[in-house]
Amino acid sequence: MNTNYKNYKAYPTMQLENREWPTKSITKAPIWCSVDLRDGNQALPEPMSVEQKIEMFTLLKEMGYKEIEIGFPSASDTEFRFLRRLIEEGHVPSDVKVQVLVQAREHLIARTFESLKGSKEAIVHFYNSTSTQQREVVFGKTKDEIKEIAIEGAKLLLKYEAQYPETTFYYEYSPESFTGTEMDYAMAVCNAVIDVLKPTPDKKLIINIPATVEMATPNVYADQVEWFSKTINKRDSIILSLHAHNDRGTAVAATELSMMAGADRVEGTLFGNGERTGNVDILNVAMNLFSQGIDPEVNIENVNHIIDVYTHTTGMSVHDRHPYAGKLVYTAFSGSHQDAIRKGLKHHEDTKAEYWNVPYLPINPDDIGRQYEPIIRINSQSGKGGVAYILEDSYGYTCPKPMHPELSAPIQKKTDETGKELTPDGIFELFIQNFVNIETPMKLVHFNSSYKDGDENSVTIESVVRVNGTERKIVGLGNGPISAFFHGIQSIGYDGYKLKDYTEHAISGSEDAVAAAYIQLENEAGKKCYGVGTDANINKASIKALISAINRLN
Fold it and tell me: What secondary structure does DSSP assign to 356-379, as a single string?
């Protein structure tokens, strides 16, 4: 038995009395800040080039992000040049604030302000690490010494701001590794920064409390955020910001619970790109809001374009099962799921429902530009409803419900044999081969019908069929073409059949529409079978369906 779990200890929970966040609901989008060009970029095996960064920045602007962290210009010449190009070439709209990251060190702060020269508005995000591990293991400094670094950094911001009066500067402070820091100490450091920068309700300070490493369940982060929101000084002058990483795989949940706990702002990346297991996926959070009828305040209508730019600029891929964006997330292979989706889509269309309510599809794929995706796909796990949906949705054949089990049998046989998924064209090909206009052993060569008013048997058919290569002439009377043909084929030995089901419809609505007819017969042994006929003439389509059913029974 593996006892290595004993190498770890549980993260301490907060003793938060009368917590309020569990009863709250999210009712609006947060202030968004994309950190794709910083957190996301620094985590890439091959960081983006300047041109790729401009392409990503353009996407983020198009999506409607108003705060975009573009990098660490004081630490990298590439990022310095990138920021200068954004400013000098006019890539930054008047309603977008570029955000830059800097450690609380004077030469880096000086270089950062230099990189922002000429910008209209900017956010300078400064930080220093406050966690127990960082203090004791990395820096070897006391709590007072670490707090003094933050205080001195805040003072330096005010010093260098005065040299660039053409720019309106906003500030953000992060006690890095917040989740590894004693809460009362993290609060003391943040309040010390507040005392220096003196934010006001008209010009607020962003206090960002990052889960630099995700260490606990999402509810613990929410408790910390609620306590912080209720306890921090000058709360009316503070924008409380989240920056969740995904080490435990719960960054989205932690962010949403913390929004309920009082956070105003969310930093993250598209598709969760970032160090280790990544940052919170801000597209995922936005989609979650969208699915609850809340305006996400970013443009998500063309997720395929977002994926294309993301994959091109980062070299990363989007998993097929990634929430909302993966290739397979709007696809059902399970038979019961397929049946429920098919019925749900039809009910939604028939009732013209005000709200989307389709089983297994939390949002309408059309709403985010995914209408081209086949919602139902067929493999060995699929059922009868899925095959019927494909034939109706892609090819216009509305097979009667009693036919569905029979319809799926050859499809199931094929997928069991190959172990692979069948494409819609492959499904249609098997449908045609097994059901439609079957001509062996009997084939319709000629068909003519005439009507006589006032006679119970008002329809006469004259037909020629070829049976096993020999042509036979048929004449029959009946109250309709099918009845007349039934009577006619009895003369050549085809008797004992009962008509159990008949339906028909047009496959297309144009002038050259083709009719489809579905006939189920039962033979003397009690075996039932469907046949399908198609023709521009509905009577001829019905006879072809009848012949198909007879051929399939013999």
Answer: --BTTBSS-GGGGT-TTS-SB-BS
